Amino acid sequence: MKVTLERNHLLKSLGHVHRVVERRNTYPILANVLIKASEDRLELRATDLDIEVTESVPAMVATPGTTTVPAHTLYEIVRKLADGAEVKLETEGGEQMLLTSGRSRFHLACLSPDSFPDLKSGSFGHTFSIPAEALRELIERTQFAISTEETRYYLNGIYFHTVENSQTGMVLRAVATDGHRMARAEAGAPEGSSGMPGIIVPKKTVGEVQKLLDGAEGDVAVEVSDTKIRFKLGTVVLLSKLIEGTFPDYERVTPKNNDKEMTVDRATFATAVDRVSTIASDRGGKAVKLSARDGQLELSVTNPDHGTASEELAVAFETDGFEIGFNARYLLDIIAQIRSESAVFLFNDAGSPTLVKEAGEARALYVLMPMRV
Question: Where is the DNA polymerase III beta sliding clamp C-terminal domain (predicted)?
């Protein structure tokens, strides 16, 4: 193999593919990136056996060929080369790859590409395109609520499915929950997505897709089967296994009869919660108490080791003498997702889940379990 290409093109592609490679691997080949030179393109591919990312970049190919080299090492070398530099890659007898750029020379150990794993994609029953902005918003509004508890593996991702919304018609809905809070967001269902199976996209895949979508424009092609999902964005293709399991019936825990409505200024409320929670105890679950009376909401925290804190702010709330407690960090995570100037809380009682949404027509809903304080 003998190929020449521009450093910035190579760095951008390596930035996309090398992230899926784990720092520690049982199998040495999984630490490597597959490099394939053919015609006028250089294809890069990396995998952790659950996710596979492939991208091709323009290159001047003198001699076609395929090899694998350590992914993170190659990325760090290219990252430290001069901006706009020309990079030459050449294999020497199949055991080493010579990388030259200006006066820099690196010899990298190669492993045979014959043993590089291939995630067989199989056939996809549903194919559709969704604007990058819409997919990015679905992920941003829900990914914070993904559970990290490995015993409940079916919660370790975002649940995507299509559903009929009585007000807006068919929608593509994303849901995530860790049992303490739930996030739900919707976008118009793309043509071809209707009837797709409900799928759970793993947290790592969600994170990689989110990075690919950063600053991206145009449409993302999505292909779905019962076991895998594939995203195509420009020259990048991300293939991932899905989480096998049944996502819980989130509709059962979505409040239907919460009739105590409180409207607060989002920014004022967020800064107040952040201030009073400064002295909250991690041992106590960062608990903050909300007490409403006479159009005022008092936020208070009690920490036996550090003291107390309280702050009042004006709210629109017709119910007096109402108290409820929340985990301050969970509360702030949800408020951070509210895009309107006001946040609307719908309560039932101090022991029941609370519904949080934006003022006006909301395309996202959040459920938060209360705490005893």
Answer: 252-372
Computed from CA positions of residues 74, 75, 81, 84, in that sequence, does the dihedral angle turn out positive or negative? positive
Number of domains in the chain: 3
Cα–Cα distances (Å) from 292 to 215, 250, 261, 269, 278, in that order, read 42, 29, 12, 13, 21
Q: Give 178-189 pLDDT, tens digit per residue.
A: 999 999 999 999
CA distances from 138 to 29, 203, 210, 244, 361 (A): 34, 14, 10, 21, 16
373 within a domain of the structure (yes/no):
no
| pTM > 0.90: yes or no | yes
Domain residues for the domain of 337 are 255-368
Based on the fold, state whether residues 286 and 346 are members of the same structural domain.
yes
